[in-house]
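ARCHIVE CARD
CATEGORY: sequence design from structure
SOURCE FIELD: tokenized fold
FIELD CONTENT:
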């Protein structure tokens, strides 16, 4: 019988890896940059926008710590959310408007960088698809025109605040990327296949067609009602709906849509858009897994081949005006309220 080999005391000892002290930063910020960031952090603290509870317990870079504090302050202003995940970021601009640490075409490398402003920007961090067709149809059945009116209030309310990829936008995008900007696929088939019926049929089978789009969405979902539509019989009074609906869930949807329609939000903080705009906060599909997500994914793929914009808003704050940051937060409060209502409407419609 072979004896069982016993491990030597040395081999029995566990391997211990060296550890860095918690006081050692995870990233190293150059001294000059760290000093500048500290001055900017002092500017942001003097603006008196966020409190001590918003500042993270530890940080490597004072500027990033202030960024996290501002984001925490804004999340508190917006309140709890179910569907949307807004993110707020910040970077510093030099005298020529270039982000510090970014690309500066034509700039001499030995020229000192002067910090002159802070740019705050925001957008969705994790857009998702939410099927809203069933509840919109329930609204339409409860009160004729209510489903389309709620959808219109959501479209108008989100346009300047938190853009959503809605079915009417999906139809416009489908026209642009599949049909050469036309109402259906016929022109695209003419350009690619001419009169060859076999080629036309093969291409038609591989592409999204007008018929498929019409089958996916009801007509009233595909169209933007527009301002003149307020006089059309298809539009329903949200105020009357709140008073007459007996279903508490549908009544709450109508009430939130009414509240959203009463908020006044302009395009003051609209970002500069270069290239395709893809800064959508959510995808509102009619049914789970329908054509809406396919169209949206194709738009993203096309946009990322060139320039695109995925910001929802941006604002520049001069470093000689600390009161501007607080003024921006106050100006954003109607938008924060709108984001909460948009989120609640999506959550209720997708339930």
């Amino acid at each position: 019988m072979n004896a069982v080999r016993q491990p030597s005391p040395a081999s029995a000892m566990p391997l211990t890896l060296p550890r860095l002290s918690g006081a050692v930063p995870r990233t190293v910020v150059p001294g000059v940059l760290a000093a500048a960031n500290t001055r900017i952090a002092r500017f942001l603290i003097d603006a008196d926008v966020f409190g001590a509870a918003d500042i993270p317990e530890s940080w490597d870079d004072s500027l990033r710590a202030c960024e996290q504090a501002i984001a925490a302050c804004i999340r508190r202003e917006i309140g709890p959310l179910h569907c949307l995940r807004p993110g707020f970021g910040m970077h510093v601009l030099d005298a020529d408007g270039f982000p510090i640490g970014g690309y500066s075409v034509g700039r001499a490398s030995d020229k000192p960088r002067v910090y002159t402003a802070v740019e705050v920007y925001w957008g969705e961090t994790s857009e998702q698809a939410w099927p809203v067709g069933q509840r919109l149809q329930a609204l339409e059945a409860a009160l004729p025109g209510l489903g389309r009116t709620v959808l219109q209030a959501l479209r108008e309310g989100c346009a300047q605040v938190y853009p959503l990829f809605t079915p009417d936008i999906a139809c416009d995008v489908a026209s642009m990327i599949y049909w050469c900007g036309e109402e259906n696929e016929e022109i695209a088939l003419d350009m690619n296949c001419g009169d060859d019926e076999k080629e036309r049929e093969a291409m038609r089978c591989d592409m999204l067609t007008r018929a498929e789009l019409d089958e996916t969405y009801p007509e009233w979902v595909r169209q933007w009602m527009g301002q003149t539509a307020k006089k059309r019989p298809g539009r329903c009074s949200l105020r009357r709906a709140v008073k007459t609906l007996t279903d508490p869930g549908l009544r709450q949807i109508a009430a939130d849509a009414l509240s959203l329609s009463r908020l006044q939000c302009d395009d003051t903080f609209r970002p500069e858009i270069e290239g395709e705009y893809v800064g959508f906060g959510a995808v509102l599909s009619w049914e789970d897994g329908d054509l809406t997500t396919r169209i949206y994914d194709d738009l993203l793929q096309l946009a990322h081949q060139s320039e695109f914009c995925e910001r929802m808003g941006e604002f520049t704050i001069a470093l000689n005006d600390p009161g501007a940051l607080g003024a921006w937060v106050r100006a954003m409060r109607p938008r924060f309220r709108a984001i909460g209502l948009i989120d609640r409407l999506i959550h209720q419609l997708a339930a």
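CARD ANNOTATION: DSSP finds 14 helices and seven strands in the chain. Confidence is low (pLDDT under 50) at residues 102-109, 226-231.
SHELF: design records, drawer C
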